[in-house]
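Final report, closing paragraph on structural work. Over the funding period we assembled a curated collection of sequence-structure pairs, and we close with a single example.
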Amino acid sequence: MIPPEISVIIPVYNEEDGLPTLFARLYPALDQLDTPYEVVFINDGSSDRSAALLREQYERRPDVTRAILLAANAGQHMAIMAGFEHARGQIIVTLDADLQNPPEEIGKVIDKMREGHDYVGSIRRIRHDNLFRSSASKAMNYLREKITRIRITDQGNMLRAYSRTVVNAINSCKEVSTFIPALAYTFARNPAEIVVEHEERAAGASKYSLYSLIRLNFDLMTGFSLVPLQWFSMLGIVVSLGSAALFVLLIVRRLVVGPEAEGLFTLFALMFFLIGLALFGIGLLGEYVGRVYQQVRHRPRYLIEAILEGDQ
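Its predicted structure, as stored:
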């Protein structure tokens, strides 16, 4: 059997309404590339009929279709990691199942990879997201770049291509919580980005809640930089110096003016500010300690229930 040049990895979580449309558009787009390929679907513990639809699609196109059925929901990035560990292509492309990235755009990232790049990201030409989601994404992109020095213009877009070398490097990592595009950027030697089209979700609703997005960005920032801890240390130094200066000022004022009863609520406000600052610092430290705790347990990142594939 000819090994595929291209592996397309698609995590699937409760996408039964949109999968038929995805199948109808994905395979013709890949057939037009005129190169050996495989499609690796990862069912991320879906509770709907997604797994059954993937099985039916495997039976229709067993020559180019593989499906990995996870026993439980592991999260989008861990599902992609499962795909990376089973992909056989020299160029590995990730794609969401919701059709917001048109499958017809896969050829663009492939062509860019063939120019000699080892990692190609994508930027949505016109985003079909609501104002809050777009604004929050831009703000987090800016903050992430300042903290991690990882330059990803559109971190929420999962249409990306990776070389076999970069994927092998990612597979060698044993992190239980990571952000794959950022991890790939740290290993890439010649990264690039291109502009691609973006469409509205074909069916269903986004699986990323506000909480999920916040958690994702915490993983991104604490997983790739110590800057948040360093910033907090600097803030602690500034607050300590400010508190010392205020203490000296209050002593001088007491000696000059005498005892005063005023200013009680100002001190309360200052106290609450410092308590909030301390709680924030404890939470930030907890993020790093929690990552260490998850890592040292050495629990599997995902559990595979079944793999649907032909003779390899």
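The beta strands are 6-12, 37-43, 65-70, 91-94, 119-124, 160-163, 191-196, 304-308. Residues 227-296 form one domain. We thank the funder for supporting this effort.
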